[in-house]
Amino acid sequence: MLVFKFGGASVKDAEGIINLVKVVKKFEGNQLLIVISAMGKTTNALEKLTRAYINGDDDVHAVFEEIKKYHFGIITQLFEPSNPVFDEVANTFVEIDWIIEDEPHDSYDFTYDQIVSIGELVSTRIVSAYLNKEGLKSQWLDVRGYIHTDNTYREGIVQWDKTRAAINRDIPGFLQKGIVVTQGFLGGTSENFTTTLGREGSDYTASIFAACLGAESVTTWKDVPGILNADPKFFEDTVKFDELSYSEAIEMTYYGASVIHPKTIKPLQNAHIPLLVKPFTDPGAPGTVIKDEVINKFLKPVIILKQNQVLMSVSAKDYSFISENHLSTIFGLFAQNQVKVNMMQTSALSFTVCFDFYEERFKKLLLGLSAGFNVKYNESLSLITVRHHTKASLNELTAGKTILLEQQSRNTVQFVVK
Ligand code: ASP
Ligand code: MG
After folding, report:
1. For ligand 1, mutation pick of 36, 117, 200 (most atoms within 8 Å of CB)
2. 121 in a domain, yes or no?
3. Which secondary-structure segment (H or E) carries 53?
4. In which order are the strands placed within the sheet that holds 138-141?
5. Residue 300: its pLDDT value, please?
6. DSSP one-letter string for 163-202
7. For the segment 212-253, what is each residue's pLDDT rounded down to a tens digit?
8. Count of alpha carbons within 13 Å of 247, Cβ hemisphere only?
9. Residue 49's domain is classified under what CATH number?
């Protein structure tokens, strides 16, 4: 059986969904499970809605109306008015009405997951209905009964035994009856609340299903020809890799390559399932294959840019040396506030660390650290990671930039720049 994942960009409009059906038709005869993300930029819009609701802003309803208008605009182009999909989508959106009528729950992350998850619940309704309309028998599956997580909202930790048991109990039977269409990015807790797996987590969802079911392969359909050595939005003369090893792909995603969610590769590597990254506009193209045995000749260095970084330096209030005890307190606060370290360095008197800026988490972290330490920080920085670098590539990348922190190992160089 095959697992396909279509990201937001591939289902951002009616043409995208029509194209998705074309791609799926090429694979008729295979057992197929399809994982879908929220359409276009819906997740960002739902994040905005969540923020507005929690802050008590007036534009909550306006933001919500925009989101609904966008989805109904698309389904009006795809279906006759009598199609049940109109009611299914409306009923799914009602969940948000219920939430925003009430006072916000104490936990931001909990509320976030209950609202933001609606994006995938709606997109899968639409895609599943359209496959059926086009004669491809499909079944909509609520993933929250299959991917079981703990209750770490916004970063649900998958409970593999429970997940595997649920998937293997039902999905093979469902696949015999037709295509299974399900939500990326979502999970469910034992109390039946919705969790999300971290932004861009739909790839991970595809990988979980593939690993549990022993799929032949996973294909993620993208708006790029495959995995490139750098993001073409920021860099010129990019090249595509035909093949990558699992370990190189893990390194790339670890440093922030956004083409695949970082947690995706490991389950596939363990089960020796290849991951294909292919362009949805050209399903016959080879794309990039990520697999076990690859001879990598890195003709061009891999460049990974992470924006919106904070560089923080932490020192003891009594100006004593940074000790293991200090570090243990500092890391404790990072873990507690779910702030992941991208790069770090210790000197005699200070600990310097670079991480992604998430406002809520940052505020809490700062509050915690300020109780025991002197803290200084810079915002709006970029972290550039270069793998398989050449001298020339480093010179080119850093020309004209102020380097605030630099680190080099055999295969990897990192810079924090302004
Ligand atoms: N819709 C979610 C996001 O945009 C998950 C995904 O696209 O993979 O983060
Ligand atoms: Mg997305």
Report:
1. 200
2. yes
3. helix 42-55
4. 138-141, 179-183, 32-36, 2-6, 217-222, 275-279, 288-291, 243-245
5. 86
6. HHHHHHHHHHHHHHHSEEEEESSEEE-TTS-EEE-STTTH
7. 999 999 999 998 899 999 998 899 889 999 999 999 999 998
8. 6
9. 3.40.1160.10
Q: 326 with 243, same domain?
A: no
Q: Which domain holds residue 39?
A: 2-291
pLDDT band per the 50, 70, 90 thresholds, residue 256 = confident
Q: What is the largest CA-CA distance in the chain?
A: 72
pLDDT at position 135 over 80:
yes
**Structural domain count of the chain:** 2
Are 320 and 255 members of one domain? no
Task: Give dist(CA 76, CA 13) in Å, integer.
Answer: 11
Question: What is the C-alpha to C-alpha distance for residues 411 and 394, in angstroms, rounded to an integer?
Answer: 13
The closest ligand to the CA of 262 turns out to be 1
Alpha helices in 256-407 (DSSP H): 265-271, 324-336, 359-372, 391-398
376: CA distance to ligand 2 center in Å? 33
Residues 408 and 372 in one domain: yes
Reduced to 3 states (helix: H, G, I; strand: E, B; else coil), residue 318 is coil
Q: Which of 237, 262, 291 is the last residue of a domain?
A: 291
Residue whose CA lies nearest to ligand 1 atom number 2: 200
- How far is 347 from 20, CA to CA, in rounded Å? 53
What does the block give as tokens for 111?
């509320």
The ligand whose atoms approach the alpha carbon of 120 most closely is 1
On whether both 126 and 258 belong to a single domain, the answer is yes
At 100 the three-state DSSP class reads helix
Ligand 2 centroid distance, CA of 41 (Å): 7
For the chain, the straight-line distance linking the first and the last C-alpha, in angstroms and rounded, comes to: 47
> 403: Cβ–Cβ under 8 A, 6 or more apart, which residues?
415, 416, 417
